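Researcher: Next sequence.
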Amino acid sequence: MEKRRFEEIEVMRIIGFLMVVDQHILGGYAQRPDASFADSMVLYFFHLLGRPAVPMFIAITGFTLFYTNYGKMNIKEYYRKRLGTIVIPYLFWSFASIIIFKEWSMFKELIPILMTGLASYHLWYMAMSIRLYIWFPLVLAAVSWVIKRKAVVQRLVFALFCVGYWIILREIGPLTNGFADLFFGTPTFLEKRFVGYSPIFYSIYLICGIAVCLKYERFKELALKHSKMIIVTYIPLAIYMYYTQICNNLPGNFPRISYEHALYILFMLQTTVVVYIISLNISNKAVKLKRMIIDLGALSYGAYLVHVIVLQHVAPAFRRWIPIQSYLISGIIIFVITIILSYAMCYLIRLTPLSRYMIGVKSAS
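Model: Next structure:
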């Protein structure tokens, strides 16, 4: 497999970061009791757009890890690289968050805090991802075994995996409690969170990312050929998922429904494909911006790590200095400012000698 750079994946990283910030700001404001009904309905729509960020990032992780390591994995080098570019930056910003927000009590349970990513509310994803990185060599070995089997066996294994994942997702509550009790006896809150953040509960997106990498050119061809149909069929699915978000806030004569888990998985995967199509078109048309796209894509991990610290300083200051009543308007402005300052902060960090250990990319100095 010839080594290449996927600019469309870098665009997806950038869009994925925007989706994360969208959830944390616009999604958070949607649930404010003092938000107007009109504002909250629009904010819930923005929140819906951002919800697939984690599944999409895991799919990208599966794609890139498989592309980089299939048939040529060096275990020692693999773990060394993840330690320097993933684990150490995570630890750095976990300690920074505890200190900046003066959450001194967290030091009493530091190991469980770091294992669950609760030093700041967004770091759970990194704690979960680190476990995914740890186990990936075993996943790669299993996938490599399946790849060597006949096509009918590959399809059967994939189908059984999808059905198994659907069952697991439907029973995620009882399974989390059951495994927590099994492993810890009388589990604490942090121990339950550790089990609840297991990579197993996001594994389908990792496997789908690997599957796309295996047949990338074919996937790319089909995505472009059927892009209109993909987007058209995405619309009713998005409307359905949107309604499941807002129905409890509507008058009593509107039916209350919870999403079907199969449709939830489909929505996450189809949104990822839609974002891929958008990213592919951007990377193809924005030839002059390729260098900027690559740089911003590389800084997205760091921007993710720092954005909550930025947000927690920007939002109170903005609402104090510019008391806009509308959570929609103020949320959009804070959203934009947070994104710009997060990337700017990472750009400045990249100029320092130790940027690799803070934001996961080599110094530009």
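Model: The mean pLDDT is 93. The radius of gyration is 21 Å.
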